[in-house]
Amino acid sequence: MEVNKNKVLRCRDVTLYTVSAMLFMDQIALAASLGSSSLFWWAYVLLLLFLPMAMMTSELGTTYPSNGGVYHWVRRAFGFRWGARVSWMYWVNNALWMPSVYILFASMLSAFYFPDMSLWLQIAIGCSLALVTSLCTSASLSVGKWLPNLGAVLKLVSVLVLLVGGLRYGFEEGFANPFTWEGIMPASPAAIAALGVMVYGIMGTELACCSAAEMIAPRRDIPRAVLASGLLIAAFNVLGTIGVLAAVPTDQTDVTTIFAESLFNMYGREGWGGLLANLVGGFVLFTFFTNMVTWSMGTNRAAVEAAHAGEFPEVFGIVHPRHDTPVGSALLAAGVSILVMLIYGLVAETAEGLFWTLLSIFAMIFMMPYVLMCLAFIKLRLTCDEPRPFRLPLGNRLACLWAGIVGLHVIAGIVLFVVTPGEPMDWDYAGKILIGVLLALAIGEAMIALGRRQHRRRPSSQALPG
After folding, report:
1. How far is CA 456 from the centre of its chain?
2. How many beta carbons lie within 10 A of that of residue 220, not counting itself?
3. Who's near 142: CB < 8 A, 6+ residues apart?
4. Is the pLDDT of residue 4 over 50?
5. How far is CA 20 from CA 68, 332, 464, in A?
6. Phi and psi (nearest 5°) for 8?
7. What does the CA dihedral 52, 54, 60, 63 come to, rounded to 10 degrees?
8. Which of 413, 312, 329 is CA-nearest to residue 53?
9. Which of 378, 376, 306 is closest to 74 using CA atoms?
10. What percent of the chain has pLDDT over 90?
11. H or E element: which one contains 323?
12. CB 420 within 8 A of CB 202
């Protein structure tokens, strides 16, 4: 992929791109399914973790503004092998996330419009969307950027409708969940398990940096965009969660249908209210699609960079001859997603069961690169003296301490996807998750080894930097 060939991203685009990537409507559903205590956890992770993560991204993204983002930062700090591992985890988590998002998409489509849809028809819809996502990822960025932009706007509109409808429902019918001090504060060791879901929900500030070489002014726009998008993401995550909690009791929620239940409770099923509920349902469904396109744009570009450096097999580095966009990595991600949906369709009893299994596997892999990002920040801050247009304040020691605290929380978040404090270990469930994670990582090691072998076989005149 040629660097600096297509500079088309402005500050507005980067801001909306980041909002589209990080304001997960599925995360709002997950948070609401945890009950009122999710509001405590939102405050906790946004202040203690999201804020320093955003500043670390701004510092690293403006100091090292090249395509690949976290891949380049980790590689610069710890060498090619760890950079390649980060790129693999980045790419494969997206390939595994895609099935869970599109199963959620199909379940919501059924809840809003087609209540008798079978699980296999939902899987067929998910497979089709995976292919469409790969096509959109391969489109010119000057065209493709409008999907994330539109998705971000529709997310903001959808959250406002949820908030207004939820508060209206609460004041007229009574709030479905308690917004009291006792209800919001975690009341048992088991409640700490929610931290895993919440930590997962605030990762992604660095995604736009995967396209830094396609930004018109990355050193100027990255900090501005991260700040603006961060404020929007924090506010709308909390507001959306409040809206859903106001209208649907936690003990009656199915995460795959929670938006339909919320909107129909708020606005009814008939007349203008029903029309609004169904319209916003369509907005939410569209944002699931744009979310996947947004992340696919970033993770597939990181995979291209790794392939061109000889760290992934050459097929990952195939790009569009005119647009210079990922083709090989995008089609491979779609293929993995389709395979996963078909395999799990054979063993899953319900869409919700399939969603949670896939979520746990990809979320654990998804969070691993952020541990390495925190370590890379610490090493690069202490050992490299490049000019830094933006710096995480507090001085070297406190900045590195804060980065270390973030990294430890990310590790805790990973563990909490299979361990519930105060409860016996469910090895049947945890075993499936851990096998899935270990298998994905083992395949990654094989892909990296294959990429290195292919790189060594190239004639020296064709060798790429590695």
Report:
1. 34
2. 14
3. 6, 8
4. no
5. 19, 23, 33
6. -130, -5
7. -110
8. 413
9. 376
10. 9
11. none
12. no
Question: For residue 414, which phi and psi values (nearest 5 degrees)?
Answer: -65, -45
Could you tell me if 137 and 300 are in contact, meaning their C-beta atoms sit under 8 angstroms apart? Answer: yes
Q: What is the tens place of the pLDDT at every residue in 81-121? A: 888 898 899 888 888 888 888 888 888 888 888 888 887 88
**Torsion of Cα atoms, 452 then 458 then 460 then 465, to 10°:** -40
Give dist(CA 92, CA 80) in Å, integer.
18
Selection from 404, 381, 379, 382 nearest residue 391 by Cα:
381
**Cross-strand bridge partners of residue 319:** 326
Q: Which amino acid is at 347?
A: V
The residue among 323, 321, 3 whose CA lies nearest residue 142 is 323
- Supply the DSSP symbol for 45: H
CB 242 within 8 A of CB 43: no
Q: What's the farthest any 2 CA atoms get from each other in the chain?
A: 73
What is the length of the chain?
A: 466
CA distance linking residue 432 with residue 225, whole number of Å: 39
Cα gap 77→63, rounded to integer Å: 13
Q: In sequence order, which ranges of 248-388 are alpha helices (DSSP H)?
A: 258-267, 271-308, 328-347, 351-383
Hey, is 71 helix, strand or coil? helix
- Identify whether the C-beta of residue 102 lies closer than 8 Å to the C-beta of residue 296: no
What φ, ψ does residue 214 adopt, rounded to 5°? -100, 5
349 CB neighbour count, 10 Å cutoff = 8
Report the C-alpha gap between 322 and 315 in whole angstroms.
17
